[in-house]
Fold this protein.
Amino acid sequence: MRRLLALLLVGSIILSMTACAKGNTETTDTTDSTEDVTVTDENDSVESPTAIPIEEETISEEENENLIPGGYFDQESSKWGTYTESGGAGKISVNPDGQLEVVIENSGTVGHAVQVYCDGFELLKNAVYEISFDISSSIDRIMEWRIQLNGGDYHAYVSEENVGITNEMKHFTCTFTMEEESDPAPRLCFNLGFYQLDGELASHTVTLDNVELFLKDASRAEPAATGDMGPSININQVGYRSDDNKIAIFRDSSLDNKFEVYNVDAGKIVYTGYVLGSVQTISAGETVAYGDFSSVKEAGTYKLVAANSGESYEFVINDEVYDDLIDDVVRMLYLQRCGSELKPEYAGDFAHAACHTQKGIIYGTSEKKDVSGGWHDAGDYGRYVVPGAKAVADILLAYEDYSHVFTDDVGIPESGNGIPDILDEARYELEWMLKMQDKKSGGVYHKVTGLNFEAMVMPETVTDDLYIMPISNCATGDFAAVMAIAARVYKLFDSAVAKECHTSSIRALDYLEANDGEGGYRNPGDVLTGEYPDTVDTDEYFWALSELYKTTGSSVYEKKIATIDFDSFDDGMGWQAVSLYGYYAYLTAEKQNDDIKKKIINKFNTYLNSVEKNIEADGYFSSMGDVYYWGSNMTLANNGMALLMANRIIENSTDFDQLAKKQLDYLLGANSTSYCFVTGYGSQSPQNTHHRPSEALGTTMIGMLVGGANSNLEDPYAENVLSGRPAAKCYVDNMQSYSCNEITVYWNSPLIYLLAGLEAN
Ligand SMILES: [Zn+2]
């Protein structure tokens, strides 16, 4: 509600000027001196050596709008929300008077256990702002407000602690200068959890209104970085093997008709070529052209140069150019290991003591079970069977199809044990998955996590209770499929493990058949960690049957496959749609029934056709089409993998390997963002991933594939900085942008298959 209206409705408003500064007598002096609070009170200038004189005239009244979205609560706003943790419970709603009401049922154990927040504004470096709001509480209590970095260490740009509030509506105001780098997506927070001075609080209601943030002086403001798109000539930044096709992509087809390839080591031009073609690419908002320099084959470091487009990043031509990359992308899985110590000799900076070793509580019971081990799934420390199964499947299939690419010297503790490291690493996850199977029913628990995501800390410091979430059909189906693959692959190395995997697979399949139609998984209400929901389990069931058929050759499974309706699920190879794995397993089994084979080839081809169509239409040869969704880089890697699989089993006139290579080129820099999406590789790669160990240590783990462009803008940071951009350019290298810049084990895994397949060919 706007303040004038509020003044009329709330009779007993006290306009108490409470400044957000150190030393102000009206507040307890606990404001952290490291926070960038400056005071504009003329009498207080000693306290604020960096204070900037306010020039009220700088901003005209008309231009100076309230920067807080929905700050008057005239209606619901999607920018406002609640965050709860540490036992806190609170709900927000807008009352009939147009005020935000926060019903706090449990104040938890820390100040931010109940947090009301607002996103959707920016703070510019050196600009002066005034924030103000009205607040009351049905019981006397203490609260804190702050505007903070919405990620990383969540430190405050400005804050005020130990603010006393009562049932009288009070007006608070504070003027401050933003002294840090401009932040396009900070978060305003009202922390309404537990404060020592209050002790335990009974259920109560806090009312908030007229939350305003005005830009008072922009004369010295520095705009936020615009996310410059990098060079106008884009290439695979990791490089090319001598005989690879090498195509540079020029952002603007109208700028140049010639380019040169410059050998950086030799200091001379080694090739001159023509810039050809003109492909309108809606996803990138560009009309691009190409420079083919495939004939440059000599090993060396190069760059492309053109008169108007400028220079490309440097790249290497060398037959071993992907060797280190494969090792690092595999080693990343080792670095994600949970439940065992990571030693410095293998993990470097990322060494840590064993984490998450306590028994998990089976959700809704008091029963506990050992579920230690496996990989941390992603930027968080959850361990989830469904995506974990995808990751293991990818790397076991990579080994099965291209075993000679994998070595025993990646640099993990098992290196040198006579078993390829990729299989040692897969086994680490498989052993955890075996623990996730319920021994009585054969069903498989969906995941093990805390109730909420952890803070941005190293994993061994997390002490929250771990909960084992209910059995789901999708987890059980994925488990059955992966264990069947493992039974095949490990037969050569360890027959006892192979047998255990086989038996567990059959038990999981039995569970699925006994619980047909039970559907997928949804998080219980108090569980906020990754859900990996899936309402269709037929594709998981089919995948399990196909892998068991490939492993055993038994007609029992083939007869069941014959009953599957292949149109009852979406096709894919992600954590949700898994049918392509099933198709591939059936088509690579020793024998096939003609009818089933025909149907499956038909489905596989339909999928491939859509992939090919997208690649043909896209200037960057991306298989995404015009929509880039969360984890687009996984889909690009998956499609590369599917094309390589197709090349092994389907007769065709298309060079699927070349199309697959284009997906790799995209991931490694030949894309419209100019990013090589694997950390630590290329000239420009992500430095600020949403990944807890990297954030906690302040250094980026090498060998992680980030999610990539996501035009659905599914986090506040992305929403603020990427709005209005073409779909393929909706990427930002910022730790706050979990929908663009997180990492996962199951995004690395299809990249491992893709790299192995291309390396082997
Ligand atoms: Zn852990």
User: Anything to note?
Assistant: The domain at 323-760 is CATH 1.50.10.10 (Glycosyltransferase). The pocket of zinc ion is lined by residues 338-339, 355-356, 376, 381, 459 (CB under 6 Å). The chain has 17 helices and 23 strands. Residues 3-19, 21-59 have pLDDT under 50 and may be disordered.
